[in-house]
């Protein structure tokens, strides 16, 4: 159901997602990630907005999404921003979505958050920004994020706190109405991560029933 929702939305997601009003929080998430030169997995990249921001910081990005139409929108967005995307490398294959952004340090791959198309320890950091509430098994997604980061790597998650905004199920296609902080902390610990931090932020939009958010970060033992 979630894939169908995002395939139907495609590039229109840029307009829909404005309800999150989360540009400042997204910037905070990036600041938690990594020094220049690291490779970052952007889980649930959507139209690639965050992938571009991370790449601009000098980081290499492997952007993953389970919706081919979203990845197509991300590719178009990269091209419109001047990123040199090699169209001849564009193919849907069993190994993943083989799209290379030459010179932009961004690669797009087709895959699920619960089964990331990355090798163990392939990246230095993994980020899931407003993604977990779309994942059928969020704890498994966090375990996958922990798996693909190498020793000393960072996992960062941004999402809504537990809430009762049922309209999000219909309008935004979410599966989960946020998460309590203690559950996130437990899942990150169960994934073998340490130095777990959780920050909470009030709703950025008093004009609508928009819940508060959290930013959680953790590190894989060196």
3D structure, described in words:
By secondary structure, the chain is an alpha/beta fold. The relative contact order is 0.16. It is globular and about 40 Å long. Helix 6 packs across helix 8. Strand 1, helix 4 and strand 2 form a beta-alpha-beta unit. The N and C termini lie far apart (38 Å). It has a 9-stranded mixed β-sheet with strand order 3-6-7-2-1-8-9-11-10, with helices on both faces. It has a two-stranded antiparallel ribbon with strand order 4-5. 31% of the residues lie in helices and 27% in strands.
Question: What topology does this entry show?
Answer:
Blueprint lengths: L1 H8 L3 H4 L6 H9 L7 E5 L5 H8 L3 E6 L2 H13 L3 E3 L5 E2 L2 E2 L1 E4 L3 E5 L12 E7 L8 H11 E12 L6 H6 L8 H10 L3 E8 L11 E7 L3
Parallel strand pairs: 1-2, 1-8, 2-7, 8-9
Antiparallel strand pairs: 3-6, 4-5, 6-7, 9-11, 10-11
Helix pairs in contact: 6-8
């Amino acid at each position: 159901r979630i894939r169908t929702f995002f395939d139907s939305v495609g590039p229109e997601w840029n307009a829909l997602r404005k309800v999150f009003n989360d540009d400042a929080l997204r910037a905070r998430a990036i600041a938690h990630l990594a020094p220049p030169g690291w490779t970052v997995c952007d889980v649930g990249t959507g139209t690639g907005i965050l992938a571009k921001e991370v790449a601009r910081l000098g980081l290499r990005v492997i952007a993953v999404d389970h919706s081919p139409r979203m990845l197509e929108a991300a590719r178009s967005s990269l091209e419109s921003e001047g990123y040199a995307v090699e169209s001849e490398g564009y193919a849907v294959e069993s190994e993943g979505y083989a799209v290379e952004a030459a010179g932009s340090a961004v690669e797009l791959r087709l895959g699920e958050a619960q089964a990331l198309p990355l090798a163990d320890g392939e990246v230095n950091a993994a980020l899931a920004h407003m993604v977990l509430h779309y994942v059928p098994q969020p704890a498994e997604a966090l375990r996958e994020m922990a798996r693909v980061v190498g020793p000393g790597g960072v996992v960062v998650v941004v999402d809504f706190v537990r809430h009762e905004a049922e309209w999000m199920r219909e309008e935004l296609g979410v599966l989960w109405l946020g998460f309590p902080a203690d559950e996130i902390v437990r899942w990150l610990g169960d994934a073998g991560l340490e130095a777990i931090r959780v920050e909470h932020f009030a709703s950025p939009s008093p004009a609508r029933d928009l819940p508060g958010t959290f930013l959680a970060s953790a590190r894989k033992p060196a």
